[in-house]
């Protein structure tokens, strides 16, 4: 990834004769984008799709970056991808599928699903079918763990320790984490593994937990598409993405009195800054905790 960016920056300097300040802006924008992608296990530009780029832009939005800054990042990415297509490094330009003003239509704080809305989502899959059972198990895992989509699609049978209600995964920066599972999640994973997955897989050597109708591992695009379908069927009038489940998981734990350090451990964050969007969503809970625990409140 670094080589492509370095080549692009050299092109801007030698062929386009752009100023050093302009080139530094491109370098900063693409560098921040690469940092996010690499933190999420992406090592090649060929692996990046429009959904991942939307996650990048939404992450910048959650960091309260100015609209002008995000607008510049979008412009930098557009120019970079045009270069990649023109020089035959890529055949598909994911930026063509992203509206220029996409991030500015998003709310300043994360969209959160209520517990009732989570229940509505969980009831959508038709559990009389193999795919419906898979979808219910997938939703239960998302609700119970707050896992990233990249972690869910990489989940392996060997990562499951259902007898002790735990998952063991490798998250960003190759850090291993142990994540607890709820009883409903364990139940539906077991049902999926016993009654549904054997009907879906074609290759008996496949060890990925969640597979599609053809027996191949689920993709990021597949989960995004299914999420839109589930939300529509559940009649939820919010802009919901897989990331919404992650935000909702954290906020529900906070609202029910969970320790912030516990949430950081489960979600895989190593800096308090990363949890700030979740904290901002529930000021009433923060105030209540302050009154309860401060010695002179």
From TrEMBL:
GO term, biological process aspect, one: DNA recombination
Keyword Metal-binding in record: no
Keywords in alphabetical order: DNA integration, DNA recombination, DNA-binding
InterPro entries named in the record: CB (IPR044068), DNA_brk_join_enz (IPR011010), Integrase-like_cat_sf (IPR013762), Integrase_catalytic (IPR002104), Integrase_recombinase_N (IPR010998), Integrase_SAM-like_N (IPR004107), Tyrosine_recombinase_XerCD (IPR050090)
Domain Tyr recombinase, residue spans: 108-291
Pfam families, per the entry: Phage_int_SAM_1 (PF02899), Phage_integrase (PF00589)
PROSITE patterns from the UniProt entry: CB, TYR_RECOMBINASE
Residue span(s) of domain Core-binding (CB): 1-85
Molecular function, one GO term: DNA binding
Name of this chain's protein: Tyrosine recombinase
């Amino acid at each position: 990834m670094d080589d492509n960016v370095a080549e692009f920056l050299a092109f801007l300097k030698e062929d386009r004769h752009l100023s050093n300040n302009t080139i530094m802006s491109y370098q900063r924008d693409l560098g921040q984008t690469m940092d996010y992608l690499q933190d999420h296990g992406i090592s090649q530009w060929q692996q990046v799709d429009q959904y991942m780029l939307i996650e990048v832009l939404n992450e910048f939005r959650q960091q309260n970056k100015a609209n002008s800054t995000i607008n510049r990042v979008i412009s930098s990415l557009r120019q970079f991808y045009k270069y990649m297509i023109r020089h035959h490094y890529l055949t598909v330009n994911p930026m063509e599928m992203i509206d220029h003003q996409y991030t500015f239509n998003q709310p300043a704080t994360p969209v959160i699903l209520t517990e009732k809305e989570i229940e509505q989502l969980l009831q959508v899959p038709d559990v009389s079918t193999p795919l419906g059972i898979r979808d219910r198990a997938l939703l239960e895992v998302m609700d119970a763990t707050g896992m990233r989509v990249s972690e869910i699609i990489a989940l392996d049978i060997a990562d499951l320790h259902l007898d002790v209600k735990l998952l063991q995964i490798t998250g960003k920066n190759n850090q291993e984490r142990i994540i607890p599972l709820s009883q409903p999640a364990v139940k539906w994973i077991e049902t999926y593994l016993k009654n549904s997955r054997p009907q879906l897989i074609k290759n008996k050597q496949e060890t990925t937990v969640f597979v599609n109708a053809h027996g191949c591992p689920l993709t990021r695009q597949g989960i995004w598409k299914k999420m839109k379908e589930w939300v529509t069927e559940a009649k939820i009038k919010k802009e919901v993405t897989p990331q919404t489940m992650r935000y909702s998981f954290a906020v529900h734990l906070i609202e029910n009195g969970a320790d912030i350090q516990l949430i950081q451990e489960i979600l895989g964050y190593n800096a308090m800054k990363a949890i700030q969007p979740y904290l901002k969503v529930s000021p009433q809970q923060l105030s209540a905790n302050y009154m309860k625990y401060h010695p002179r409140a």
